[in-house]
Design a protein that fits this description.
By secondary structure, the chain is mainly alpha-helical. It has five helices and no strands. α2 packs antiparallel against α3, α2 runs parallel beside α4 and α2 packs antiparallel against α5.
Length: about 170
């Protein structure tokens, strides 16, 4: 096999927080625990008669894994749209109030208050939308105005669809 900076390396399987990601591996580990538990208990009972049992230690806190909601893809797009509209409104109509930043803060409060990774994803999408237009437009042009109107319409449609499909 080639070595050096261009060497091909076998990709590693991802492991999240030290947990097994393969269901087959998880099943094998669970089976091994269930099969070996009676043997370990029997051996422990023979040695435990001579010594008192140690005090039970509290279980470690459960690891909470954040799962994607079925509408997360749409929320990411909505966050990106809010970032774009926030930049374009500030560029073209700085004297008019711009609710897009407050709407994004409210979205983060409602959807990701206790989920830091999700909050980070939504914030990154907002910033990506803001920066994408900041890189293209330094002054207000007819194209910037048209994009702002188009994005506002897309955001309104997306918000309506999300609440219609997944709302309470």
């Amino acid at each position: 096999m080639r070595s050096g900076p261009f060497a091909l390396k076998r990709p590693q399987k991802p492991v999240l927080l030290g947990l097994m990601t393969s269901s087959r591996a998880a099943f094998a580990a669970l089976s091994a625990i269930l099969l070996l538990a009676p043997l370990a208990a029997h051996a422990a009972s023979k040695t435990a008669k001579a010594e008192p049992a140690p005090a039970a230690q509290p279980a470690p806190p459960a690891i909470v894994l954040e799962q994607d909601a079925p509408y997360d893809k749409d929320l990411l797009r909505l966050s990106e749209i809010l970032g774009s509209v926030h930049y374009l409104r500030g560029l073209c109509t700085p004297d008019m109030p711009d609710p897009s930043r407050q709407q994004m803060e409210r979205l983060l409060q409602l959807e990701a208050a206790k989920e830091p990774q999700r909050k980070q994803k939504l914030t990154a999408a907002f910033n990506r939308g803001y920066r994408s237009f900041a890189a293209l437009h330094s002054t207000c042009t007819a194209t910037a105005l048209a994009a702002e109107a188009r994005y506002r319409a897309e955001g309104a449609t997306l918000a309506t669809e999300i609440t219609a499909r997944f709302g309470n």
